[in-house]
Design the sequence.
């Protein structure tokens, strides 16, 4: 896929928070790990007093809700996204916190001086970056020598692989963007960072309302070929694979923690 096409897909998928909220809700309702992926990610952050923190691709900003203690520790906290629509949602979600800055930023051209931040965060977004090597080099540039880069992502053997196998009779294949996954992320990051550690999040979905998972499927850019398949057919196939009234779906998520 060309860089232009990928950029257009990202703009369409994330111009507002609708599709993202659909995907978030399925995890909130049906995940077996009740800690929650966002809470787990946040628990890995080491935020100390006086730190400068930049998040790239902050989305709805929901992970910072009820994190006043950590927000207050930051000398400067900048939440950024490629999408103005996402930032507007983040501002509303975090309206009670007055010291957060919001900026539209492209990771490939971060508008800050070298070694500005103690922490840079880029969760569930690196696979969308047209020139990932440039984006990661920009992160390294603005990160202090003793700083940390946190980047969560998905694995290649989770939800999409499972659903694509179930729907294969309709020619559906897993066309998920795999530019940056738990499988290849280490080798990509080690081109820029000397120390790269992978942490895994153990979880799965137990879905009791099939309509919800169908909504999830149709919100995914990687499932666009389903547009020609009637929704009812998709529901029938998924219902055939339920056990005791639930569809059990594997998840594969985790994060990398990087230092120079």
Sequence:
């Amino acid at each position: 896929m060309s860089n232009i096409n990928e950029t257009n897909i990202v703009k369409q998928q994330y111009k507002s928070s609708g599709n993202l909220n659909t995907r978030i809700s399925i995890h909130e309702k049906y995940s077996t790990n009740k800690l929650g992926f966002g809470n787990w990610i946040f628990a890995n952050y080491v935020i100390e007093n006086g730190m400068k923190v930049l998040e790239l691709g902050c989305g709805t900003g929901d992970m910072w809700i009820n994190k006043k203690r950590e927000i207050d520790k930051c000398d400067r906290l900048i939440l950024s996204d490629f999408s103005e629509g996402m930032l507007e949602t983040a501002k509303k979600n975090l309206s009670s916190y007055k010291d957060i800055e919001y900026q539209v930023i492209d990771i490939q051209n971060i508008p800050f001086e070298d070694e500005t931040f103690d922490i840079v965060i880029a969760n569930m977004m690196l696979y969308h970056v047209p020139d990932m090597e440039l984006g990661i080099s920009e992160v390294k540039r603005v990160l202090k020598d003793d700083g940390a880069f946190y980047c969560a992502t998905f694995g290649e053997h989770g939800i999409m692989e499972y659903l694509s196998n179930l729907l294969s009779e309709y020619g559906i294949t897993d066309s998920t963007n795999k530019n940056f996954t738990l499988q290849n992320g280490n080798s990509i990051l080690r081109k820029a960072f000397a120390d790269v550690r992978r942490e895994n999040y153990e979880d799965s979905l137990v879905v009791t309302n099939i309509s919800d998972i169908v909504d999830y499927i149709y919100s995914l850019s990687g499932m666009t070929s389903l547009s020609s398949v009637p929704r009812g057919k998709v529901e029938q196939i998924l219902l055939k694979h339920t056990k005791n009234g639930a569809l059990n779906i594997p998840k594969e998520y985790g994060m990398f923690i990087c230092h120079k």
The first helix runs from residue 3 to 14. The radius of gyration is 19 Å.
